């Protein structure tokens, strides 16, 4: 099962791990393994990637970053396949993504003796890039009968599903807002009327998908494999140059 209906799918370069994720889901759909278990596994994969960077095993680190993306795709798909939607899983996934991004960037700063101020800037840029992708992707899903566990405007804690704890959902929502509110508010301020657009072309979503977390990690893995770990932090700062391009194109051309 996909987040988007068949007719609204686009070439999502950030979702390259989907074919492997489908295989994992097929193997696990009749087991007791849950989406949250896969979410925790992608954390392990991210930690292993950091360890491998620390011992200069860059090919292996790149492998674990790609594996992290595959598991990140598989957890939500497993929840949809088992018909087990969960706000607990939805928020936990996003919270751990943010914390792993932070750990990855600052670990790279330590390994390369980079300035921590530049590392913080790179982290902020990565988060902002990912928010651009998520903002338009969620809007597309809501406007086309896609998956709607994620909301366009996450302003209040949702009502928990029957199988989960409302207290846990409330707690994770607060953590989620702490990590993402500033980025969500920033992108919304730049393009507040995006949800009212009459159409969101596939070419536009394909362009924006270059900012998705999956593609960010693929780029990072590519830099590691090439031995260019020192360039990761400056690259993700410079990569933000396309944010005004994407938002400007949406505001000017897609009304």
Q: Could you walk me through the main structural features you see in this protein, from its secondary elements to its overall organization?
A:
It is built from ten helices and no strands. It has 255 residues and is mainly α. The mean pLDDT is 92. The longest helix has 28 residues, at 116-143. It has helices at 18-28, 35-54, 58-81, 87-112, 116-143, 166-190, 202-208, 213-225, 232-238, 243-253. The chain has a single domain, classed as CDP-alcohol phosphotransferase transmembrane (TM) domain (Four Helix Bundle (Hemerythrin (Met), subunit A)). It is globular and about 45 Å long. Helix 1 (18-28) crosses helix 3 and helix 3 packs antiparallel against helix 8 (213-225).
Give a quick summary of the entry.
With 255 residues, the chain is an all-alpha fold. It has helices spanning 18-28, 35-54, 58-81, 87-112, 116-143, 166-190, 202-208, 213-225, 232-238, 243-253.
CATH architecture: Up-down Bundle
Under the CATH scheme, which class? Mainly Alpha
Q: Could you name the ranges where pLDDT drops below 50 across 5 or more consecutive residues?
A: none
User: What do the pLDDT scores average to?
Assistant: 92
Distance between the termini: 30 Å
Number of domains: 1
Sequence of secondary-structure elements: HHHHHHHHHH
Number of β-strand runs: 0
The computed structural class is: mainly alpha
Largest sheet: none
- Helix tally equals 10
CATH topology: Four Helix Bundle (Hemerythrin (Met), subunit A)
Tell me the strand percentage band.
under 5%
**Helix residue percentage:** 55-70%
Rounded Rg? 18 Å
CATH superfamily: CDP-alcohol phosphotransferase transmembrane (TM) domain
What is the overall silhouette? globular
């Amino acid at each position: 099962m996909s987040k988007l209906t068949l007719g609204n799918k686009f070439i999502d370069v950030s979702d390259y791990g989907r074919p492997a994720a489908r295989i994992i889901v097929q193997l696990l759909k009749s087991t007791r393994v849950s989406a949250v278990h896969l979410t925790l596994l992608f954390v392990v994969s991210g930690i292993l990637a950091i360890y491998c960077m620390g011992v200069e095993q860059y090919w292996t680190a790149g492998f674990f970053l790609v594996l992290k993306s595959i598991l990140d795709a598989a957890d939500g798909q497993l929840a949809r396949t088992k018909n087990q939607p969960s706000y607990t899983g939805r928020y936990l996934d996003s919270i751990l993504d943010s914390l792993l991004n932070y750990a990855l960037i600052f670990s790279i700063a330590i390994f390369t003796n980079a300035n921590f101020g530049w590392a913080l800037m790179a982290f902020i840029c990565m988060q902002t890039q990912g928010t651009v992708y998520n903002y338009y992707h969620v809007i597309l899903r809501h406007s086309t009968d896609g998956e709607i566990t994620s909301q366009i405007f996450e302003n209040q804690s949702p009502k928990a599903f029957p199988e989960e704890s409302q207290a846990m959902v409330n707690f994770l929502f607060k953590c989620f807002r702490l990590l993402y509110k500033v980025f969500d508010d920033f992108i919304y301020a730049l393009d507040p009327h995006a949800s009212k657009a009459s159409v969101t072309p596939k070419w536009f979503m394909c362009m924006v998908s270059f900012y998705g977390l999956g593609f960010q990690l693929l780029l990072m893995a590519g830099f590691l494999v090439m031995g260019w770990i020192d360039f990761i932090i400056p690259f993700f700062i410079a990569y933000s140059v396309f944010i005004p391009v994407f938002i400007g194109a949406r505001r000017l051309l897609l009304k």
